[in-house]
Amino acid sequence: LCLSGCAGLVLGDVGYFHALALIGPRLCSLIMATWPAIATTIVAARDGVPPPGLVAGMLLSVTGVTVVLLRSRDGSAWRPGLTRRQWWIGVGGALLGAVGQAVGVVLAQQGMARTADLPEGVDPLATTLVRMATGAAGVQLLAVLQRRPLALLEVPRHRGALAATLAGMLFGPVLGVWASMAATQLAPLPVASALMATTPIFMLPVAKFAYGARIGWLGAGGTVLTVLGVAVLLLVG
User: DSSP 3-state assignment of 36?
Assistant: First the structure.
């Protein structure tokens, strides 16, 4: 569980939030939707060759993301002055977030597994506490290595940033992660991860009306194709 926290909440979240600032929430959430395919690949490499249905779902997800990436540099709509190098760094950060999320969920599933000593497995709430404590320690260690040990104090100085952070903490690391750990324990991993990867669909209207993003038919089609891929993972899982 500690390794899961390091993968998902340190490496994954650092990459994801860096990408969020560069290329925006819609493209970030779309790239993050590839993590069920990555998680399925990890499980398949551990357990054997995946069935054709899982392979088809993974290919659909990757194809959908590729369509959106090739359509245009969507990050430029989020930050008009973004250079091509910065845009690709943002894409790389989102991919790091997807890999971290996938590795974190796979490790968490193993950590919560039922054993002879723990016939009921580890409680999802306890799992969340362990992962969050490890993640907080890991992020603080990164801040120290960057010679910014008091970086956390920058947030309370801005009321808007503090309010948004507290709201994000409630819906993300508290309710969201707790629910995701329960899903990971109670449902097959492809099913749980596929449902958790539907975020890009919800981000379409948010990006349109809250941020004024120009989505277009190709962008919407690529998003739907990505989520269709995780739906295939759900059906065959």
Answer: helix
Question: Would you give the distance in Å from CA 28 to the centre of its chain?
Answer: 9
Q: Give pLDDT tens digits for 194-216.
A: 677 777 777 777 777 776 666 67
| Contacting residues for 138 by C-beta, under 8 A, at least 6 apart | 5, 6, 9, 10
Residue with the bigger pLDDT between 108 and 32: it is 108
Query: Cα–Cα distance between 23 and 82 in angstroms, integer?
Result: 8
Which residues, including other chains, have CB under 8 Å from residue 205's CB and lie 6 or more apart? Answer: none
- What DSSP element (H or E) covers 169? helix 159-169
Q: Supply 7's token pair.
A: 């993968």
Q: Looking at residue 75, what is its pLDDT?
A: 44
> Is the CB of residue 54 less than 8 Å from the CB of residue 230?
no
Return the residue matching tokens 């990555």. 38
| CA atoms within a 13 Å half-sphere pointing along the CA-CB vector of 86 | 15
Confirm if 167 and 176 have CB atoms less than 8 A apart.
Answer: no
Beta carbons of 18 and 95 less than 8 angstroms apart: no
CA distance 189 to 173: 19
Helix/strand/coil percent split, the chain, to 5: 80, 0, 20
